[in-house]
Amino acid sequence: MRMLSAAAVMVLLTAPAYAQTMPNVNLIPDAQSKSPEEKEQDAIKDRAYRESLKKIPDAKASSDPWGTVRSADTPKAAAPAKPKTKTGASGQ
Q1: Are 42 and 34 in contact (CB under 8 A)?
Q2: 34, CA 20 to 30 Å: which among 4, 24, 40, 87?
Q3: Cα torsion angle, 55, 58, 62, 64, sign
């Protein structure tokens, strides 16, 4: 049983290395060149996409979801205090 588990571990450890040495196989062939009509349609879609991005307003409000729950007096984040450590000789 130990030999079987040791063999399984060796196979699992060597599989990633073997996968890196395999030749590059492209399963999706390159697309054929597009016709002028398809290129024009792509350009129209690209322009429409860029125009839609310009319509998105800038987010200037705080993205703090708990901002309304906290009081104004409470600090947002308190830095944890660092413990003092001795450096150098032990000071005898």
Answers
A1: yes
A2: 24
A3: positive
Q: What is the pTM of this model?
A: 0.34
The dihedral sign for the CA sequence 39, 45, 48, 53: negative
Of 59, 62, 61, 42, nearest in space to 50 by CA? 42
Give the residue among 80, 78, 76 at the shortest CA–CA distance from 64: 76
C-alpha neighbours within 13 Å on the C-beta side of residue 60: 2
